[in-house]
Amino acid sequence: MNRPDVHETEHTITVAAPAGTVFALVESVDDWPHVFPPTLHVECLERAGAEERIRIWATANDQVKNWTSRRTVDREGLRIRFRQEVSRHPVASMGGEWIVEPLPDGHTRVRLTHDFRAVDDLPENVAWISRAVDRNSGAELAALKAAAERTAAERADGGRTGDGRTGDGAAFTFEDTVRVDAPAGDVHAFLLEAQLWQDRLPHVARVVLKEDTPDVQLLEMDTRTADGSTHTTSSIRICLPGRRIVYKQLRTPALMAAHTGCWTVTEDPAGSVVTSRHTVVIDPGAIASVLGGTATPEDARAFVRRALGHNSTTTMRHAKEYAEGRCADRPVTPATYASLQRFYAAQMRLLDDGEGQAWAGTFAEDGEFAQSAGPAPLRGRAAIAAAVRSAAGRARSARRRHFTGMLTARQSPDGSVRTRFYALVVDTEEGASPVLRLSASCQDSLAPEGDGWLVRRRLVEHDGR
Question: Residue 441 belongs to what H/E stretch?
Answer without folding.
Answer: strand 435-449
